[in-house]
């Protein structure tokens, strides 16, 4: 599935072979190197892009430019209303996922036709990583648990919510 233009970049997906802590560490280092490769390609493309406005001019969804706030009371009012009331979204459902360094982050939103959603749910990778710990720690020592949790990079705040 094409995602955020990644299909236009030249990079390799690092994979491990053993699944142990050291293998996950080596995979993370390879991921860093591939990220630098992608960033260099993106920077080269940005140098070729024309400069200018990159946000929408539709004031129903985007606040007015900061410079305009000091000159126009209407801009201040619109800015205040946009950030306090929000904007209406249709009575539909949507799920969007992005790739993060820890894994896939997903956001589910079910609108009501107004400015307050019926339901919002975030799927974070750390909760899934915690559920994999019994398999990953089988036949290991308690002292190994710290290294195993560190190699998976769990954020317990994601799991607690």
Low-confidence stretches: none
Strand content: 5-15%
Write down the overall mean pLDDT: 88
Number of strands: 3
Query: What gap, in angstroms, lies between the N and C termini?
Result: 30 Å
Fraction of residues in helix: 40-55%
- Helix-strand string: HHHEEEHHHH
How would you classify the helix and strand content by structural class? alpha+beta
List keywords for this structure.
extended, 7 helices, 3 strands, 161 residues, alpha+beta, single chain, three-stranded antiparallel beta sheet
Question: Briefly, what is this?
Answer:
The chain has helices at 21-48, 66-69, 73-85, 125-131, 133-136, 142-152, 156-160; strands spanning 93-100, 103-110, 119-123.
Structural commentary:
With 161 residues, the chain is of the alpha+beta class. Among the domains are: 1-52; 58-87, no CATH class. It has helices at residues 21-48, 66-69, 73-85, 125-131, 133-136, 142-152, 156-160, and strands spanning 93-100, 103-110, 119-123. A three-stranded antiparallel sheet has the order 1-2-3. Helix 1 (21-48) packs parallel to helix 6 (142-152). The longest helix is centred in the first third of the chain and has 28 residues, at 21-48. The model has no long low-confidence stretch (mean pLDDT 88).
